[in-house]
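Per reviewer request, we include the raw input and output of the structure prediction for the construct analysed in the revised manuscript.
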Amino acid sequence: MVSADMIRTVLGVIGNVTSMALVLSPVPTFYGIWKNKTVEQYSSLPYLAALLNYMMWLLYGLPAVQPHNMLIITMSVIGIAIELHYIALFLAYSVGAARRRVIFILLAEVAFVATVTALVLNLAHTHTLRSMVIGILCVFIETGMYAAPLSIMVIHTMVHWIQLWRFLLPEDQRECMVSGCNRLQMVAQDIFYQATWRPIKRLEDA
């Protein structure tokens, strides 16, 4: 008869395999960065978010937090190692403010994980409470990890929209559009002022 532990182990192995495929999916991108010696317009945010996610899951899998979670520890360690390689390439081929931003976020993540570790291990005295607190944080951080690439999509869409806008509209029409938007904003502000100032004035006069 198949035991619950066996099912759990099989599902964990399958989860690790699919996670490994996800972690290795950016390899072609970083090969291009290494080959061209520049990060171009690539963003480091998804990989920094993934690194924070794996560090938190490693914390979750520690025996002091959630015993008997070797599969989580294994995948987290592998994920951290791979993400650090990605970030190292970003640091090697980025310059100026972009490099400083990566370093700052990396140090902030390490400080955050260290702070969470110290607080949870010292203030939460049972495995149940520790795993619950860190598990909730892991869920939120992992959601942020998957949402991080959306920032790239937004920037990419905005850049192409601006380029298309500049291409389709002559300069005088663009100026008219901007002027029209400013006028609409002024009208909206005036409506808001009239709607809020007059009732207040009546109350003061009364």
